[in-house]
Amino acid sequence: YQRRVRENTHLFRQASFKSTRTNKMGSKAVILVGGPTKGTRFRPISLSQHFVPKPLFPIAGLPMIRHHIEACAQVPELKEVLLLGFYEEGLFNEFIQSVSQSLKVPVRFLRETAGQQFGTAGSLDHFKEEILSGNPEHIFLFNCDICCDFPLVSMLSFHREHKAQVTILGKKVSSEKANFYGCLAADSESKELMHYAEKPETFVSDLINCGIYCISPSFFTTLKEVKERKELPIPNYYRLEHDVFPEISGKKLGFVFETTGFWSPIKTVGMAVVCSQFYMEKYKKTHPELLFGFQQKTGEQQPRIVGSVLIHPSSTVHPSAKIGPNVFISAGAKIGAGVRVANSIILDNVEVKDHACVLYSVVGWNSSIGSWSRVEGVNDPAANNTQDSSNIGVSIIGEGVSIGNEVMVRRCIVLPHKEISTSYDNQIIL
User: Fold this and answer.
1) pLDDT band for position 8 (cuts 50, 70, 90)
2) Neighbour count for residue 391 (Cβ, 10 Å)
3) For residues 53 and 92, is the Cβ–Cβ distance under 8 A?
4) Whole-structure pTM over 0.85, yes or no?
5) Integer Cα distance of 257 and 155 in angstroms
6) Distance (Å, rounded) from C-alpha 392 to C-alpha 384?
7) High-pLDDT (> 90) share of the chain, %
8) What pLDDT band is residue 379 in, cutting at 50, 70 and 90?
9) What is the dihedral angle through the alpha carbons of 219, 224, 230, 236, rounded to the nearest 10 degrees?
10) What residue spans of 360-412 are helical by DSSP H?
């Protein structure tokens, strides 16, 4: 996977990332990357021996957390970005080196003690001295598995104006979906956080927590006070969402900055397809040179490209293929004659044979799709954001799967190393 991080990073070496940092460097950023768990929500992709840590899974051709770091690079006076988690540190080394050089932002990994549980608040408390070294004026804090337009500069201005200890990025969602998230009740005028409920059983608010925060150094004193007041079943294990935000509500410590921009969690592989579309649409303004995927050569025939498409230089695509919109084709992939690919992620060394069709799908490493076969899912955000086996959205093909000729696989999840010779619809193929 280190090779894939290096190869996919190659796509972005020629991009011009403009940092707005100055020599004052008064802020830091912290990204909570978690650690190696069973990865059930990312199955069957997470079952692969080639699976990268979830924070490095490609979204629009970039590792998931690279989008966070690129947004941080636009914040004036940013000092460094810290990754907090309990992965083996070496798993992030090459990514950290690459992103630090290309974005001109210092990035470090801080590893939690193996076997010790902290929770989101506990992790901040544990690394307090590292985070506050250099006396940053403010700290941005992110969950890693989110996709957003990251309105960090506006959020920072709001945070300063309200003299908040913590500012929570909030977004309005439908009342039917709100209870799946942390719900915020804020004063309509002052925007002070008045009540917080994490995934409540009854309706509280349609304003939800986006998992992005701006905090002041004084917030660490509040963390310590909350920990001392609460009886923790596990020492040092406490969470912002369950233990801290409910405690500080209505005390003029927390405020809510509401965004109307794009935001989505990336809890499942299916949501990676949805979020790729958002980021690739952004590339039209930020990095248009990265789209279409080809170094144009005089006289060379190119496939028909529709909308936003990113194709790795080492992949091959037949000129008669039609690709896009919202497609990322990774290193070493082979796309045959007459192939149609749209709204999909094609990972390393996948072969899509002549006249096959791939729609709303993620195709795992080293898989092959036979001639005249069809692999498709549907654009159903509700299905893509859950693990309901009776309602599958994006089709997900595991590593090393071989799909025969003239086969249809529709709305299916296929575990690694399966051979598919008959058609399936809305099934998990074990």
Assistant:
1) low
2) 14
3) yes
4) yes
5) 6
6) 7
7) 69
8) confident
9) 110
10) 381-384
Distance CA 1, CA 354 (A): 28
Handedness of CA 290, 295, 299, 300 (dihedral sign): negative
- pLDDT tens, 109-122? 998 876 677 889 99
For residue 7, the tally of other CB atoms under 10 A from its CB is 16
Residues 343 and 276: beta-carbon distance below 8 Å: no
The CB density around residue 37, as the number of other CB atoms within 10 Å, is: 11
Tokens of 95: 């990514």
Question: Looking at residue 39, what is its pLDDT?
Answer: 55
User: Looking up tokens 């990025």, which residue turns up?
Assistant: 169
Helix or strand run (H / E) with residue 131: helix 128-132
Amino acid at 307: G
Cα–Cα distance, 341 to 153 (Å, whole number)? 37
The residues facing 335 across adjacent strands are 317, 352
Q: How far apart are alpha carbons 348 and 362 in whole angstroms? A: 11
* Residue closest to 396 by CA, chosen among 145, 43, 38: 43
Q: Omega into 381 within 30° of 0, i.e. cis?
A: no
Q: What is the pLDDT of residues 235-282, one digit of tens each?
A: 888 899 999 999 999 999 999 999 999 999 998 888 999 899 999 988
The dihedrals phi and psi of 113, each to the nearest 5 degrees, come to -60, 130
The terminus-to-terminus CA distance of the chain in angstroms comes to: 25
Contact assessment for residue 197 and residue 204, using Cβ atoms and an 8 Å cutoff: yes
- Residue scoring higher pLDDT (121 or 39): 121
Q: Residue 411 in contact with residue 393, Cβ under 8 Å?
A: yes
